[in-house]
Structures are given as structure tokens and as C-alpha cells.
Write a structure and sequence with these properties.
The structure holds 2 protein chains of 2 kinds.
Chain A lengths: L5 E4 L2 E5 L6 H18 L3 E5 L8 H16 L3 E5 L3 H9 L8 E3 L2 H11 L13
Parallel strand pairs in A: 2-3, 3-4, 4-5
Antiparallel strand pairs in A: 1-2
Helix pairs in contact in A: 1-2
Chain B lengths: L5 H9 L1 H14 L10 H21 L10 H17 L3 H9 L2 H11 L3 H43 L5 E4 L2 E7 L4 H18 L3 E8 L5 H16 L3 E5 L3 H10 L7 E2 L3 H11 L12
Parallel strand pairs in B: 2-3, 3-4, 4-5
Antiparallel strand pairs in B: 1-2
Helix pairs in contact in B: 1-3, 2-3, 2-6, 3-4, 4-7, 5-7, 6-7, 8-9
Classes of the chains: A alpha/beta, B alpha/beta.
Chain lengths: 129, 286
């Protein structure tokens, strides 16, 4: 089965969703991601959905769940690169992803996460920070 | 009826001036006469033109309004109908222009024809003819009204949704006019596309030009704000007039999650602060 790759960037994890999500893939992603947050002591998760063209309520709920799980493990979640059509669909479905932070692209998402770090754990401080 | 309505046409020709006089008097006294929309001389002009053409056509061809010979009459009526539609006459007031001709014509026929059979036959002929022409007038009236409405609708859509860039990372959407579902959809899409295009992080929605805010409009606004937020852009709603602020509270609409400002200037200042820019006044030169 395919798995969605999770990349580590200093204290953050970058997830780029480039294939159609289905149930099992999403559940596997949840497993992998929570495990990696703990293992890498990640402080933030960046989910890039810029290549996602179709979205449904399941997808919206999955993103919300991932954000909630990351929150419990003390990591912020930023969803970046959502397309206008996807945003409209999610709003029409009544899913405004409360509690999930958003940014226009990976760059500004990364800046958003970096701003949350406290002095002791600077962006370049690595996992030791 | 190979010989086309000879009696009626002949009689009409003979008494054309009288008929016109009576018709005018009847139209002016009718309840549907709108002195505020049209002058007497205009009405006289229209009436004379129609009557002359009507008599000419009736003399020359069979009394069937669908026939080709009546095309000129119809064109004249269409012109009258269109001008009345733009002047603001109602459909029935416009149709009355044609129907009111019946009274003087019937009066004339009653005076001139003594044979009951002939009288009723001629009256039937005139009445079907005028009915058809009257209905045609109404139809044209409705069509021209419809085209006016279509044009206005299109104009409304065109002036509805400009998204302007105010500064780096700041776009503004000045909303003008009533928001309905269809327009909101257009507004939302153009705002989101502009956000992607400019990479803006803050969008200011200015509702100074929105006349009323009800629960539906508020819901549309909230949806737009939510969609922009999902894409990573914050929204500020500005241009809230005092009455609208009162309405929003009375309706129990919750805008507390959204930054709202009274004027576009205030919203712009906040947006500048958020993007890390600052406005300073140059020291006055002495």
C-alpha cells in the first residue's frame, strides 16, 4: 500500500498530499504522523494540500483530526496551499476547520510555525534545542 | 370573405376625423390615461398614425391580424409599445390604447348599419382584429420590459466585484449593492482567486455599499471569511454603518470571531500593522 511521505525539517514535519486520499491511506497517515511527532519531538506539522483538487467531508474531518491529535502532542498544525474551489467546498460543507491554522504557501506556513517557537528552541536549533 | 371587410373599412375612412376625435376624448377620459407620463399631443400623434395605417390595411387586405399585410400595423404598435414600456406604462395601460378604439368604432357601426345581422358580423370582425392587435401590443410590451430587466441585471453583475490590491499582501473588496446567493458565489470566487494571484495575507471586505444586512447576507459574509481563512488569508470587515451594527446585534448574528472596523481607513491601518508595515506622518516643514 502507498504511504504518504513525511519529511522532517528541523523541528517541523512536512506532509505533502499529492494523491487522492482514501480511508486507509488517511488512517495510515494518522498513525505515521503521530508516531513521527513523538519520535522526532516535532513542534509543528505542515500539511501541503496544494495539489489536492477534490475534497469531501471525510477529507475535511481527517485534517481536523490530525490537527487535534498533533495539538495533544504539543505540535501546531498549519494547512497550506488550499485551492479556492476546495476552500469554497469545505465552507459549503460546513467545515471551517476551527483550530487549524492556515497559510497561503509552504513559505508563509513555515514562517508561521517558526514564530511559535520560544527562544530556547530556535528554528535552527535542531532536535537538541 | 373574399371582399375584405368592406363596410367597416369604408365607414372608417369616411369618418376618420370623427373617430379620431372620439377616440382621443375617450382615451383622455379613461381611468388608465396617464397625464404624468405622456403629453396629449404625443398621444394624438400615435393615435392618428395607428388609425390611418389601420384603415388603409383594412381596406386593402383581409381582416386577419396574422396575415402578412398587417405587418406594418404591427410594427407601428411594437414601436408604440416599446416607447410606453420605457415610459413606465403598465401592460394593461398599453393594451388599452388598442382596445379603446372599439368604443368609437362600435358607436359608428351602430349608427350606420341598421341590419342586425350585418352589424353583428362587422362588430365581430373588428373585435377579433383589435383583440389580436391588443394582445400583440401586450406581448411586445412584456418583451421590452424583459429586455430592460436583462440588461440591468447584466450591468449589475459587471459592476459587482472588483477586487483591488491596496498594498503588498493586502487586498480589498468593496461590496456594493444587495448580496444574494449567486452574487456571493461570484464575490467569493473572485476574492479567493485574487488572494492566490497576489499572495495576499489580509483581505478587507468593505460593506459600505451594502444597503441592508440580514441573516442571509451575514451568513454569506461569514462563509467568505471562512473560505479565505482556509486558504490562509485573514479577513477584516469594514464599513459597518451604525444602523447595520444595530441590525446585526438585534438579529443575534455573531461576528465576534471576525475583526470588524467602522471604516476602511481603520481596517487598512490594522492590516498594515499585521503585515509589519507602519504609516508615519512626515514632520511638518516650517
Amino acid at each position: 500500500m502507498d504511504r504518504i511521505p513525511i519529511l522532517k525539517l528541523n523541528r517541523f514535519l512536512l506532509v505533502t498530499i499529492q494523491v487522492d486520499m482514501h480511508d486507509r491511506l488517511a488512517l495510515a497517515l494518522q498513525d505515521d504522523l503521530t508516531a513521527r511527532i513523538v519520535k522526532d519531538r516535532a513542534r509543528g506539522v505542515l500539511i501541503d494540500i496544494s495539489s489536492l483538487e477534490v475534497v469531501d467531508s471525510f477529507m475535511g474531518r481527517m485534517i481536523a483530526h490530525i490537527a487535534a491529535m498533533a495539538r495533544v502532542l504539543d505540535a501546531d498544525t498549519v494547512v497550506v496551499g488550499m485551492r479556492p474551489a476546495v476552500a469554497i467546498t469545505l465552507v459549503e460543507l460546513g467545515m471551517t476547520l476551527e483550530g487549524v491554522r492556515t497559510a497561503l504557501n509552504v513559505d508563509s506556513g513555515m514562517a508561521l510555525l517558526a514564530a511559535t517557537l520560544t527562544d530556547g528552541e530556535q528554528f535552527n536549533g535542531g532536535s537538541k534545542g | 370573405m373574399a371582399e375584405p371587410a368592406p363596410r367597416v373599412a369604408q365607414l372608417l375612412r369616411k369618418h376618420e376625423a370623427d373617430i379620431l376625435q372620439q377616440w382621443m376624448a375617450y382615451q383622455m377620459s379613461a381611468a388608465t390615461w396617464r397625464a404624468d407620463l405622456m403629453t396629449e399631443s404625443d398621444l394624438r400623434e400615435q393615435s392618428r398614425g395607428f388609425l390611418r395605417l389601420f384603415i388603409e390595411t383594412a381596406q386593402q387586405s383581409e381582416p386577419d391580424a396574422d396575415a402578412a399585410a398587417w405587418k406594418l400595423v404591427k410594427e407601428l404598435l411594437a414601436a408604440v409599445s416599446k416607447s410606453r414600456a420605457t415610459q413606465g406604462f403598465s401592460p394593461s395601460e398599453t393594451a388599452t390604447f388598442v382596445f379603446s378604439l372599439k368604443k368609437p368604432v362600435f358607436d359608428l357601426l351602430r349608427r350606420e348599419l341598421s341590419d342586425l345581422d350585418e352589424l353583428s358580423r362587422e362588430i365581430w370582425l373588428v373585435t377579433t382584429l383589435l383583440d389580436k392587435l391588443g394582445l400583440y401590443t401586450t406581448e411586445v410590451h412584456l418583451q421590452s420590459r424583459q429586455s430592460i430587466i436583462n440588461r440591468q441585471q447584466q450591468e449589475l453583475m459587471e459592476l459587482s466585484t472588483p477586487v483591488v490590491q491596496l498594498w503588498d499582501n493586502i487586498v480589498a473588496l468593496p461590496l456594493i449593492g444587495t448580496l444574494d446567493s449567486e452574487r456571493t458565489q461570484v464575490v467569493m470566487e473572485s476574492l479567493l482567486h485574487k488572494v492566490v494571484e497576489t499572495g495576499a495575507s489580509i483581505a478587507i471586505i468593505d460593506i459600505t455599499g451594502v444597503p441592508t444586512v440580514d441573516t442571509l447576507v451575514a451568513q454569506h459574509l461569514l462563509k467568505t471569511v471562512a473560505a479565505a481563512r482556509l486558504m490562509g488569508a485573514d479577513c477584516i470587515i469594514s464599513g459597518i454603518r451604525p444602523q447595520i451594527a444595530q441590525t446585526i446585534v438585534h438579529l443575534g448574528i455573531n461576528l465576534s470571531d471576525i475583526v470588524t472596523k467602522a471604516t476602511l481607513a481603520d481596517a487598512f491601518t490594522v492590516a498594515l500593522q499585521r503585515t509589519g508595515a507602519r504609516l508615519t506622518r512626515l514632520a511638518a516643514k516650517e
